[in-house]
Specification:
4-stranded mixed beta sheet, 7-stranded antiparallel beta sheet, 32% strand, 11 strands, mainly beta
Length: 168
């Protein structure tokens, strides 16, 4: 007798939509999940990617959270910018951006390289004014196969904040 779980895609009978974070149900005997708002997602059992069929965007799951897998530098840059905005609204400032090594070639031409700067970390590339490092090899730390970046942070308002401040 075949177990009923064998009839569902790899993430089980339900999973969260990576766009709206609402529960979407699996279609039995397929590798597809259906979000009422965003349509069909196909689960690839070999890569463990969740692919939005309408847009072709790929997502991977790590520690209960979906991470979009970028194919264009603007996607990763936009995602980092959004995270910096979130930090700012939570009362933090970023001190460094660590980007997954798999994006190094993709994003390298968009990084600021300023060897003539008088800043102490001037040899390091920068993005949005922050020093950039690339992650360790994903074989040493498997989360970097899935997550895109990490921000080192500390409490406070960014010194080079692009946000309009009413009262300083």
């Amino acid at each position: 007798m075949t177990h009923v779980s064998m009839h569902y895609p790899i993430f089980g009978p339900e999973t969260l939509c990576p766009h709206c974070r609402k529960m979407m149900t699996a279609l039995t005997l397929t590798d597809t999940y259906l979000c009422q708002r965003h349509g069909a997602f196909e689960a690839d059992p070999k890569t463990e990617d969740l692919v939005h069929l309408q847009s072709g965007r790929h997502w991977r799951l790590w520690d209960g959270q979906w991470y979009r897998q970028h194919t264009h530098p603007d996607g990763i840059r936009f995602e980092i910018h959004e995270a910096l905005d979130r930090l700012y609204t939570e009362g933090y400032r970023a001190t460094k951006v660590i980007i997954a090594q798999r994006y190094q070639i993709l994003i390298n031409t968009y990084l600021e390289h300023s060897p003539w700067s008088d800043k102490p970390q001037s040899g390091r590339p920068r993005l949005y004014g922050l020093p950039v490092e690339f992650s360790p090899d994903s074989e040493d730390d498997p989360r970097w196969q899935v997550i895109n970046f990490d921000l080192d942070k500390e409490p406070g308002i960014p010194s080079n904040s692009p946000h309009f401040r009413l009262f300083d």
